[in-house]
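Aim 2 progress update. The chain analyzed this quarter is reproduced below.
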Amino acid sequence: MAHALSVYAVPVAIGAVAVVLLLGLGNMLRGGSPNVSQRLMRWRVVLQLVAIAIIMLTVWAMRQ
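Predicted C-alpha cells:
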C-alpha cells in the first residue's frame, strides 16, 4: 500500500495542486475575473489539504 501511495497518489496530489495554482496565477496575470481567481485559490487550499493528508498517510504506511 505504501509503495502505491508513494508512486501514484502523492505525485497526482502534488500535480493537482500545481495545476490549480498555475491556472489561478495565469488568470490573475491575464487580468481575468477575480471571482475565478478566488475560486481557484480556494480549490488550491482544499487540494493542498488532501495532498498533505495523502503524504502523511504514506509516511504512516511506510513505518508500518
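The mean pLDDT is 94. Residues 34-63 form the longest helix (30 residues). These observations will guide the mutagenesis experiments scheduled for the next reporting period.
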